[in-house]
Amino acid sequence: xxxxxxxxxxxxxxxxxxxxxxxxxxxxxxxxxxxxxxxxxxxxxxxxxxxxxxxxxxxxxxxxxxxxxxxxxxxxxxxxxxxxxxxxxxxxxxxxxxxxxxxxxxxxxxxxxxxxxxxxxxxxxxxxxxxxxxxxxxxxxxxxxxxxxxxxxxxxxxxxxxxxxxxxxxxxxxxxxxxxxxxxxxxxxxxxxxxxxxxxxxxxxxxxxxxxxxxxxxxxxxxxxxxxxxxxxxxxxxxxxxxxxxxxxxxxxxxxxxxxxxxxxxxxxxxxxxxxxxxxxxxxxxxxxxxxxxxxxxxxxxxxxxxxxxxxxxxxxxxxxxxxxxxxxxxxxxxxxxxxxxxxxxxxxxxxxxxxxxxxxxxxxxxxxxxxxxxxxxxxxxxxxxxxxxxxxxxxxxxxxxxxxxxxxxxxxxxxxxxxxxxxxxxxxxxxxxxxxxxxxxxxxxxxxxxxxxxxxxxxxxxxxxxxxxxxxxxxxxxxxxxxxxxxxxxxxxxxxxxxxx
Length: 502
What we know:
Rossmann fold; 6-stranded parallel β-sheet
């Protein structure tokens, strides 16, 4: 990225390499800021990241930059790929890849400018460049944050070969899907002898590395008979797919956030991202080649990610969803506002204590009660303004990994998990009602939106019919949960109460 300092229309300068060099880290009315921990001008790309949204920029980029600085390395620059729109590319390219992270809440660190993103590609428009970057011998790690729906799985959890874009990628069109880009990039590495590589999923999926490996092999199995042989063997020998668990609350950036960053930095930053002070990364220590020394930045490298992952998905993420749906229905705009409601706070605590905790294998060194208190403390942070409807997105993808594992485990133990059922019922009511207690529209942003609307129409006006209709969406609930009378009864009771109390 070439430096291209420029002023915006009102005379303010925009963040880039040239304008940043003219600023001095300072203490002022708006607080302090810190410059990149690495020199962006000398940084070489060693990581390709698929899905360069706000979360990646507030989480993995921070860990990577601090690790590179601590180890004195200049070869862990990041080439980010934006998948769904060109907005991140348009934000960052004029800024030479620079952007800032603005922490909100108690113990917030100074505004931090990051310099590790050295390239931004728009995958939908330039898939050839994405494939070439993955095949670059200098790249030893490919990371992903593409959300649950970005993996394009079917109801059985396999690659959805009925998806037109997946099918086009398999048949040899320029790849538009994440798995298609990844496999074609690995294929080119194999053809060029570019060396081993680690593919590290950072999405909220149970066993995310294992899931991604399976999807890659689903893609390989679907290739035409004319495809060159040997690729699957090379991937088996030369690629690793470790699991990981990531945690940081990253709400959508607002105009106020951008204004605050400008006050602190003295420059316009179109790419600023907001985050809570807390950040956690647990990574399975299984790499095919060199990697950043992420442990120097506070990451946990372990052979067993599963226990950490279950705690986070079932306690933090499930509680987040419960507060999102119940809070949105009651008209609360943010998670912190929802948690200020005593009834919702009690439901959140009870979900973790009564339903989730009995299902967990607690990692060594983790105090589960302290973790639970920390979850509620983090959610109560009013400075984050994490919107309930934002957390409510993609419920059909989130419920299975956040809540339904707990439901199945408790049912298998002979107990009906009332609070987990309440969270699922709140989602059902959210989908069916479409409006909050004040009459405001609740957006249904979900890859199964058409199916869900049809299901709710079939059960409109009757809690029992609504529950039965939505339980039949097998991609979410499978074949087992609709057959459990106790779970169905709990859902029906909760839906009826939520509807009456609106």
